């Protein structure tokens, strides 16, 4: 059983549409990171959120950390084919050193 | 600054053999973690090393072991390979010890056990 539940598991959208990926847990995290992974490669860090209620923007990507630090969301505006990939959320529990708890991932496919 | 490097990128072994994977962290990073990624289980934490000491361990059998050298490079070893050990093994490095700190992943080693 994974500590972080990601939804949806799969998203297929047209270029220009918006999408949101959710990451939920009953546990409190000291920080949460979002990664994107391409096939056969390692995850690439997109953002780290630390403070409850924090919102971070990275061009067309908006990341939010829940007030209680139990959930997070990733919103992509006007998706492009280059946004295609596996999106992973990963959280750090307090005093867990560097042990990241990963969600199962959301496969996003953006078609032209 | 060079990223995390892992060697080899691909490995094919047979059941019962053992394997050693290598990871070189980002220059200046002293913590190295290892993860196993499979389609069924996703990314699972194996262990983390800092200053040549294992600081944290996941729920894997004793066949999985690791070590870290004084230059922060790390190796992981899997003995008596099983078919279920086929996976992408990922190494991640971060700056220091303790909780927190962003982790940066290498490209992984794809292990296939026949």
Q: Can you give a write-up of this model?
A:
- The complex is a heterodimer of chains A (112) and B (114).
- Chain A has strands spanning 5-7, 10-14, 19-24, 29-37, 44-49, 55-58, 61-65, 71-76, 85-93, 100-102, 106-111.
- Chain A has 112 residues and is mainly beta.
- Chain A has no helices and 11 strands.
- The N and C termini of chain A lie far apart (36 Å).
- The model of chain A has no long low-confidence stretch (mean pLDDT 94).
- Chain B has 114 residues and is mainly β.
- In chain B, the strands form 2 sheets. In chain B, strands 2, 4, 5, 6, 9, 10 and 11 form a 7-stranded mixed sheet that branches.
- Chain B is built from no helices and 11 strands.
- In chain B, a hairpin with a 3-residue loop joins strand 4 and strand 5.
- The chains are: A mainly beta (112), B mainly beta (114).
Main attributes?
heterodimer, A: 112 residues, mainly beta, six-stranded mixed beta sheet, five-stranded antiparallel beta sheet, globular, B: 114 residues, seven-stranded mixed beta sheet, four-stranded antiparallel beta sheet, 11 strands, 53% strand
- What structural class do helix, strand and pairing data of chain A support? mainly beta
N-to-C terminal Cα separation of chain A, in Å?
A: 36 Å
Q: Which residue ranges of chain A are poorly predicted, with pLDDT under 50 across at least 5 consecutive positions?
A: none
The number of distinct β-strands of chain A equals 11
In oligomeric terms, what are we looking at?
Answer: heterodimer
């Amino acid at each position: 059983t994974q500590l972080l539940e990601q939804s949806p598991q799969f998203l297929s959208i047209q270029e220009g549409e918006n999408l949101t990926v959710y990451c939920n847990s009953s546990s409190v995290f000291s920080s949460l990171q979002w990664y994107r992974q391409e096939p056969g490669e390692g995850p690439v860090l997109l953002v780290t959120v630390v403070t409850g209620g924090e919102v971070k923007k990275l061009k067309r990507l908006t990341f939010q950390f829940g007030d209680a630090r139990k959930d997070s969301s990733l919103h992509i505006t006007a998706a492009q084919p280059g946004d295609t990939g596996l999106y992973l959320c990963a959280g750090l529990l307090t005093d867990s050193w560097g042990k990241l708890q990963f969600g199962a991932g959301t496969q996003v496919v953006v078609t032209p | 600054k060079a990223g995390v490097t892992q060697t080899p990128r691909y490995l094919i072994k047979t059941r019962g053999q053992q394997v050693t994977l290598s990871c070189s962290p980002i220059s200046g990073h002293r913590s190295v973690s290892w993860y196993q990624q499979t389609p069924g289980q996703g990314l699972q934490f194996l262990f983390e090393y800092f200053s040549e000491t294992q600081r944290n361990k996941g729920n894997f059998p004793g066949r999985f072991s690791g070590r870290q050298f004084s230059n922060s490079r790390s190796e992981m070893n899997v003995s008596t390979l099983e078919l279920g050990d086929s996976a992408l093994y990922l190494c991640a490095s971060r700056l220091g010890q303790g909780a927190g700190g962003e982790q940066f992943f290498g490209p992984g080693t794809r292990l296939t056990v026949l």
